[in-house]
Amino acid sequence: MTAPVKSARILVVEDEAIVARDIASQVQALGYEAAGIAADAEQAIQMAERERPNLVLMDIQLNGAVDGIAAASAIRSRFNLPIVFLTAFAADEVLERAKLTEPFGYILKPFSERELSTTLAMALYKHEAETRLRNTTRQLKALSRRVLEVQEQERRRVAVELHDELGQSLTAIKINLQLSQRLKDKALADINLENIHIVEEALQQVRRLATNLRPSMLDDLGLAAALQWITEQSANRSGFSVTFHHVRSQPRLAADIETACFRIVQEALTNIARHAQAKQVEIRLDRHEDHVTLRIADDGCGFNLDEMRIRAVAGDSIGVLGMQERATLVGGELTIESALGQGSTVQFRAPWRTHEDLL
């Protein structure tokens, strides 16, 4: 378990003023910040909305018609805040009602400082872990949905190219073959030459289609050659200059790491071309002892990193999610640094594994 977050803000809900101040003092003595004290359920809900604390210490027996369990239920459903009940009630029926609110702790009065400290630390840690899991699940759902969409788009694109380009070439050859049987006055050699020309164009179309799906040089020549090719292609299309640095004569990386590196560079260059307005892009592929590092930096307009993270969690930045997913699948880590007007840097770090390591 990680150390408790000492900057966490805790709302104390207790209807006895002296007890409430004493609990708030103990919370502060443990290194947390008291976000306020509420004396009844209505005030607790209002303060939870206004203060947005990291945790609520909730007494069950409160003044007024609404008790702490009902207040906890409202706070959990509306603000998704962790609740720790702090009460003198241990009756089974009270405990069963409290369970329905999914509390992160249940402390019986009187309690020790150690008991309070442990419960708060565990509750904050559990809530943080659940939040990360919920965000990850949301990202995976968004990524899975986008993968299906992209898959259908790619199938549609391939189908259109096959129909419009390769299909037309094959149709032209078919017509020529039919004409060669009917038109005796046209030299057969001329028709054959035209057929050969059409077949050559069709082969070029097939090669281009296959290269767009996956460049063969990634499998045949390795990552460095494939990255050199894609950087040149991107520079020619987008107008920025790209420099690619790598250590030559290195052994081939494992296929999954090479693929992850290639796709991350491909996505990064696509984002730079669409949004960065960059003039210079630098790509570095280096080995550092037991890991490989890939770095893509540009001098473009940059972006707000916090806003990008929010979009990524919400599933609106699928390119970033895709890069992060590729990094995770090979046991690596992806970091992004950027600021408005200061360009951006994407760095991928993965264990150094070669093709021979898998044999």
What does this structure look like?
The chain is an alpha/beta fold and 359 residues long. It folds into 3 domains: 9-111, Response regulator (Rossmann fold, 3-Layer(aba) Sandwich), CATH 3.40.50; 142-213; 216-358, Histidine kinase-like ATPase, C-terminal domain (Heat Shock Protein 90). Helices cover 57% and strands 17% of the residues. The chain has helices at 17-29, 41-51, 68-79, 92-99, 113-182, 188-213, 216-220, 223-238, 255-276, 305-314, 318-329, and strands spanning 9-13, 33-38, 55-58, 83-87, 105-108, 241-246, 280-288, 291-298, 333-338, 344-351. The strands form 2 sheets. The protein has a 5-stranded parallel sheet with strand order 2-1-3-4-5, with helices on both faces. Strands 6-7-8-10-9 form a 5-stranded mixed sheet. β3, α3 and β4 (83-87) form a beta-alpha-beta unit. The chain is elongated, with a radius of gyration of 31 Å. The two termini are 38 Å apart. The model has no long low-confidence stretch (mean pLDDT 82).
